[in-house]
Amino acid sequence: MRLNRRQTLGLMGAAAASTLAAPAIAQNKKIVVGALRFTSHSGSFIAVERGYFAEAGLDVELKFFQAAQPMAVAIASGDVDYAVTAVSGGLISLADKGAIKVIGGALSEEKGIDGQKILASDAAFKGGLTAPANLGGKTFGMSTAGSSFHYMGSKVAQAEGVEMSFKPLQKVGAIIGALKSGQIDAWSIVPHIAKPLAGSGAVHIIGDISDYLPGYQVTTVFTSAKNAADEREQTQDFLAGFGKGVSDYNSTMIDKADGDDGVNEMVDLIHKYVYTDRPREKAAPSIINGTMRINEGSKLNIASIRDQLEWFQSEDLVGKDITMDTLVDGSYVETYEG
Amino acid sequence: MADAEGVKHRQGDSPIEVRFRGGGFAPRSRRWVGVAVFVVLIALIQWGTETGWISALTLPKPTDVLATFGQLWESGLLFKHLQPSLTRLVIGAALGASTGIAIGVLIGLFSYVRAGLVPLVAAIFPIPKIALLPLFVIWFGIDEGSKYALIAFGTFTPTVVATYGAVDNVDRSLIRMGQSFGLSWSSIVRKIVLPGAMPGILSGLRISLAIAIILLVAAEMLGAEYGIGAYILEAGSLYDLERLFAGVVILSLLGVLVSAIIGLIERRLLGWRI
Amino acid sequence: MDIRLDAISHHYGATEVLRNISLDIPAGEIVCLVGPSGCGKSTLLRFIGGLERPESGRVLQLGTPPEGSLNPLTFVFQDFALLPWRTVKGNISLVLEDHGIRGARAKAIIDDVLNRTRLADFADALPKQLSGGMKQRVAIARALAVNPAVMLMDEPLSALDAQTRELLLDDLVSLWTRQPFTAVYVTHNLAEAVRLGHTIVVLSRRPGRIREIVSIETPIDQRRAGDPVCQQKHDLLWELMREEARAADEELIDG
């Protein structure tokens, strides 16, 4: 191999830089992190952009998906190492097959922080569906049976002591269409989607999920069972890098630690990944509206996960013999009973 | 020839039996081979999953699929899923096939209809009907209407194409014979064109109905609580391979059943074929 | 009822097929049209039967068709044109149904024509079960069922083998002898023409014109193979046609 002078210098510079940045663990290990183009995945984007993964000795490739379901399958197949998604029947089923483990928490409902909204279609609202208590006999949208929408709707109905029927519509876009045209009566969704919909007058917000599921662990960090068991160091490195990204996100976007300039800078960063088909000035409000607090240190509400597992089991969506240990590896992050 | 026989025949070579070279290229009924392939394949999967050579993530155990099927049967869920699916299939396919045959015959009979509709049919044939599902939901409602429409639309186009092709292929000399005996236009259509097009229409139906079964799953993507398609989609999203395969097996059986029914109709209606 | 052809000419595109054909077809006689291939004899038959329209000239019916004739001009086709999905009986009833003849009346007609064509035992057979000769007999029975004024026979024996052809010729002769009918019989086979025709019209090669009209006085039922009069007419016809046939054979087919 022959190198000219410039290449040689470049190589030396790169070597020096990496030595300076991560003197302890300069393995530069290649891993793949799955993500959806949602603001709730900003932790990964920030950690990549600001070099937090590199500092942790990881060479991260982001792989984007259209939906959470294929991402979970990609983790099981070993194509993706780490990802963030909602707990669903599919996720539990894959854990049961020894393919994946939940290792931390990402998004959770908290009292006092804007969380997921319960929506009613305009037609249903005019017909008297003005509060979750009136959901009896109504149709509730969901992507598929065993999705988080199914869980939320079912829990709300249970708390109100009413019966609803659930309509599987596969995609969020289809659910929104069905809700707007009054084909379904109700749905629940994160606030940055709920609010603009309600603003248009086509749907109405009739309640908060947090009233029914306080501390609901909406999304979790998960990886393959093999990574969780055999790649402890790498997994810890990932969580460290991801955690720094999450910290930056929370402090800049929610606590406004760096003022408006900080927010603007963060919006620029996130806009590289989210709403890329819109110009920045149109994307910015959506990104800012979509801000939700992500769990610091990826701490995990184990009580909520248990409740979800039990619900899926009671609905006969997953095997009755699945235990929490099968689903969760609690050794990486702080867990709590919320 | 150096052997003893050859020496005796002084004219030259000993007689050689003509080598048979006419074998093959004649498909014959070997029904048990198909069954054997299934049995071997399933046995192999069973063995593989039991020894762990095939992971639980890759394929389910055939016995577990059977057990799932058994549970479906015992719990009565099988019919809870089959009944709406069969209803959708029958109504959707009947709508699509009957309008398809009607339009196909009109295209076959009238030049203006042909000139007007053939390009339209060619334009809508390659549209993946699944892509139109959200539109159908708005047009026909999220309940049964959109499901019937999707299946009907999906069976309609192949039926039209098969039907007008079949009408085109009706022996012109038979139609000329009908005219030469002064048969009325409607008699010629009813007694010559339609029966003559029947073989083509029925073989077109074979394809259309298979498409109808494929579209059943698509139709049940939106807003179906019960149905074989909904069951399969749910099993897929839950990554429950046993249920997924049980559902797929039901669809396959449905396909075999439909094919057998058409075979029966063919034997009854087309006994006149050579 | 007689048929008169009045100065018929016709083109297919740029190809002239028939030129100025005028001919009388008297009732009760068999007129054979012979000529080399492509001379337009089948086209002429379709003009007579009203299945095609000539460019110029007219086909005229002289007199009224006999009482009870359902379809005065009735074809017998070379390829039989039987509906394969109908039985022998069904194929005959097909041409009666449109005239509202059903039930006992239809059965009487069907039985009669099947007897006349010696098919009574095969009423319920499907065409696929029949030999070529029997199929053509069904087609003839079907033609007889509508009690035609004129039978238009388009090479009815050409699709059959030589023995069957011979047998069917005998059948046609005996049918005519028992109950004479008017027929225009198109053929390229001179032996058939000599055997059946009261009058034999020789057409020239394309464009078809009437080259010669030959009459044979010998009663049809007395003609035998090897009969000197017949043989002489046969030879005469062949002389007339030989050169035409050769020239027609060597013509390029365009379009």
What is the compact description of this entry?
Chain A is about 45% helix and about 20% strand.
What are the key terms here?
heterotrimer, A: about 350 residues, alpha/beta, 3-stranded antiparallel beta sheet, 15 helices, 12 strands, about 45% helix, B: about 270 residues, flat
Structure, explained:
- The complex is a heterotrimer of chains A (338), B (274) and C (255).
- Chain A has 338 residues and is α/β, with parallel strands linked by helices.
- In chain A, 45% of the residues lie in helices and 18% in strands.
- Chain A contains 15 helices and twelve strands.
- Chain A has helices spanning 5-21, 42-49, 52-55, 68-77, 89-96, 122-126, 148-160, 172-180, 191-199, 225-230, 232-254, 259-271, 280-289, 302-314, 324-327; strands at 29-36, 58-65, 82-86, 100-105, 117-121, 139-142, 165-168, 186-189, 203-208, 219-224, 300-301, 335-336.
- In chain A, the strands form five sheets. In chain A, strands 3-10-4 form a three-stranded antiparallel beta sheet, sandwiched between helices.
- In chain A, helix 2 packs across helix 11 and helix 12 (259-271) crosses helix 13.
- Chain B is flat.
- The mean pLDDT of chain B is 88.
- The model of chain C has no long low-confidence stretch (mean pLDDT 88).
- The chains are: A alpha/beta (338), B mainly alpha (274), C alpha/beta (255).
- Uncertain segments of chain A are 5-24
List the chains of the largest interface with their residue counts. Answer: A-B, 33 and 20 residues
User: What is the helical fraction of chain B, as a range of percent?
Assistant: over 70%
Shape of chain A: globular
Compile the SSE list and pairings.
The complex is a heterotrimer of chains A (338), B (274) and C (255).
Chain A (H helix, E strand, L loop, with lengths): L4 H17 L7 E8 L5 H8 L2 H4 L2 E8 L2 H10 L4 E5 L2 H8 L3 E6 L11 E5 H5 L12 E4 L5 H13 L4 E4 L3 H9 L5 E4 L1 H9 L3 E6 L10 E6 H6 L1 H23 L4 H13 L8 H10 L10 E2 H13 L9 H4 L7 E2 L2
Parallel strand pairs in A: 1-2, 6-7, 11-12
Antiparallel strand pairs in A: 3-10, 4-10, 5-8, 5-9
Chain B lengths: L3 H5 L22 H21 L10 H14 L1 H33 L1 H14 L8 H8 L3 H25 L3 H9 L4 H35 L8 H10 L3 H29 L5
Helix pairs in contact in B: 3-11, 4-5, 4-7, 4-9, 4-10, 6-7, 7-9, 8-9, 9-10, 9-11, 10-11
Chain C lengths: L1 E11 L2 E11 L4 E5 L6 H9 L6 E7 L10 E4 L11 H10 L5 H14 L15 H14 L4 E5 L7 H17 L3 E5 L3 H7 L2 E5 L6 E6 L12 H22 L6
Helix pairs in contact in C: 2-4, 3-4, 6-7
